[in-house]
Design goal:
Length: 181
């Protein structure tokens, strides 16, 4: 199987999103699936210049190339004010159209401080990726009350959620394999 990119959907330093991404990376490693992290906390400042709409800065190329090379994408999004973090939507907008997501398998994990676990942003992203003709993996995982679900070192404390994430990873890896063969 070729590489699956895991997108950490915020640029907030020390985010819980990044901690969940680390857990997902270990799950895919156990499955012997190659992953590559796309951490929006490391986006080059030049991408936020309005001129980037016309010409992307060279420092953005590794981010765009990772998405283009990926056989599947796992989007891990927090909920900010009932929606997708602005930086994640902006990142999507900066990627090549249509080839970045056309016929690409995409999977979603949402996390929030509230009780819905980022249901709204995941549904928003499903609409965006559906519009971009991606193949949406139907098994979403939501992590509500994220502050109470993580230990100091970022381990997820709820065994049922750990199991759901593992099942999602296994299923998505198979989904990607079938669609890219």
């Amino acid at each position: 199987m070729r590489m699956i990119a895991i997108i950490s959907g915020t640029n907030r330093p020390g985010s819980n999103t990044r901690k969940v991404v680390a857990h997902l990376e270990s799950l895919y490693r156990e499955l012997k699936v190659v992953t590559q992290l796309v951490d929006l906390a490391h986006l080059p400042p030049a991408i936020f210049d309005p001129g980037s709409y016309a010409e992307k800065p060279a420092a953005f190329k590794p981010f765009a190339d990772t998405v283009l090379a990926a056989k599947g994408l796992v989007i891990v999004t927090p909920e900010y004010n009932g929606g997708v973090p602005g930086v994640l939507k902006y990142f999507i907008d900066m990627l090549k159209f249509p080839e970045s997501f056309e016929a690409k398998p995409v999977c979603f994990v949402g996390l929030s401080a509230g009780m819905w676990g980022a249901l709204r942003p995941v549904e928003q992203l499903q609409q965006i990726f559906g519009y971009r003709n991606a193949y949406l993996y139907p098994e979403r995982v939501f992590l509500p009350g994220i502050h109470g679900l993580l230990t100091e070192v970022g381990a997820i404390t709820d065994p049922k959620l750990v199991e759901r994430l593992a099942e999602q990873a296994k299923g998505f890896a198979g989904f990607v394999g079938k669609l890219s063969s």
